[in-house]
């Protein structure tokens, strides 16, 4: 299920799917892996914070930044897939338990850091695919929207996908929608029936990454992306668009 609402916002290549590119620290919440096999060039950012449903806590966010930095300078990486290691959830949005312990100044700083994170994902110089096998709530949906493509089994980015009117409706109501509804709205590129392993979106995302791999032209692809991210859903410069992120931050602080 996807929901946008009050929860706001090289190294060793293994032969198996999801093998880490480098030895992670014990208890790492974000891993960088390789699809392996005949999928050389496809890297994976594996989100693994099961006790908090991959919510956007400080450590989790810091490790996402580190993963992006690692992949940005790996010339062998041609496509990146974002995948949850926690069954039934992609990302649960803001860590409200951590948020409750912050004062207003700390909340403001962390919200800006989350925005920077989404911008860093959007600016990664290779195609990115979000494999949404489970709930993507608030900032978790924003993370998925920051990726170039989405497969389902921020919200300044939301109007570019569904239009400003529907974006406001989803925000104000906090409505939950399933993968098929997300596809019909244009939120995701593909919606697939879930399988018994709970990774149908990942499997479709991996197939999509393999399809992209031999065709990807980074220079032209990033030029197109630059034009897309320079505008909001109405064709206006992004910094002149309605700041839906600000709305969510205000609601969260009330």
Helix content range of the residues, please?
Answer: 40-55%
What is the H/E string?
Answer: EEEEHEEHHEEHEHHEHEHHH
Largest sheet: 7 strands, mixed
Portion in beta strands? 15-25%
**Outline, from the CA principal axes?**
globular
Distance between the termini: 26 Å
Helix count, DSSP H or I runs of 4 or more residues: 10
The structural class is alpha/beta
* C-alpha-based Rg, rounded: 17 Å
Oligomer: single chain
Strand order of the largest sheet: 2-3-4-5-7-9-11
Structural description of this entry:
The protein is α/β, with parallel strands linked by helices and 254 residues long. Helix content is 41%, strand content 17%. Helix 1 packs parallel to helix 3 and helix 3 (104-123) packs parallel to helix 4. The two termini are 26 Å apart. 43% of the residues are buried. Residues 4-20 and 239-254 have low confidence and may be disordered.
């Amino acid at each position: 299920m996807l929901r946008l609402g009050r929860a706001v916002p090289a190294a060793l290549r293994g032969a198996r799917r999801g093998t880490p590119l480098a030895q992670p620290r014990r208890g790492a919440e974000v891993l960088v892996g390789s699809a392996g096999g005949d999928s050389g060039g496809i890297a994976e950012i594996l989100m693994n914070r099961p006790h908090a449903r991959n919510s956007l806590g400080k450590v989790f966010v810091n490790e996402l930044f580190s993963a992006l930095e690692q992949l940005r300078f790996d010339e062998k990486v041609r496509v990146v897939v974002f995948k949850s290691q926690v069954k039934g959830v992609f990302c649960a949005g803001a860590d409200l338990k951590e948020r409750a312990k912050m004062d207003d100044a700390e909340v403001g700083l962390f919200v800006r850091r989350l925005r920077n994170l989404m911008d860093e994902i959007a600016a990664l110089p290779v195609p990115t695919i979000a494999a949404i096998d489970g709930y993507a709530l608030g900032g978790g949906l924003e993370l998925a929207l920051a990726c170039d493509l989405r497969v389902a089994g921020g919200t300044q980015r939301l109007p570019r996908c569904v239009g400003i009117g529907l974006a406001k409706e989803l925000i104000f109501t906090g409505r939950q929608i399933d993968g098929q509804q997300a596809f019909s709205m244009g939120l995701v590129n593909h919606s697939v029936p879930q399988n018994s392993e709970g990774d149908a979106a990942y499997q479709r995302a991996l197939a999509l990454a393999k399809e992209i791999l031999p065709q990807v032209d980074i220079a032209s692809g990033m030029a197109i992306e630059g034009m897309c991210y320079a505008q909001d859903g109405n064709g206006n410069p992004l910094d002149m668009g309605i700041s839906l992120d600000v709305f969510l931050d205000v609601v969260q602080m009330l």
